[in-house]
Give the backbone structure.
Amino acid sequence: MVAWARLVSDVPARVIFGEYYFSDAWMAVFAIDNSFLLWGALLGLGVWRRWPVVTAFAGAGLLHLALDFPLHGSDARPMFWPLTDWKFDSPYSYWDRNNHAGIFGPLEAGVSICLTAWMLWRFRSIALRVGMVLLLLAELGSSGIWRFVF
C-alpha cells in the first residue's frame, strides 16, 4: 500500500505516514495481515495438512509479528483481530528515534546481515544466494528509509 501510494499515486511520505497509515481503511488491512490469530490458524492448517511451504510461510509471519509486537508504539496495529482491536503501545520502536530506534534499528540491520551471511554460507545455489542478497537489500532499504521519512 505504501509503495502504491508513494510510487504510483505520488502521495508524499508525510501524508502516507501521517494520515493514510492511521486511517480506518489502512488499519483494517493491518488488522488482518498482522493478526496472530490468523497467522496461527494458517500455521495450524499447514502443520495439520503437512504442507511445508504453508508451514514455513506462516511460521515466518508469526516470527515477524513476534518481533513487530514489542517495536511499535503510537503506530501499533491491532494484532489480535478479529477478537479485539486492542493495540499494544510499546515504549520501543524500530523507527522512532524518540523510542530508542537508534538502538533497535541498527540491531535489526545487524541481525539481518548476520542471518543472511549464515544462509549464504549454508546454501550453495547461485539463484538462492542472489535472491537472499536481494531480499537483504530490500530489508535494509525498507528499514533505512525511516531515517529519511522521519
Remarks:
- Residues 20 and 26 are 7 Å apart (CA to CA).
- Residues 97-150 form one domain.
- The mean pLDDT is 90.
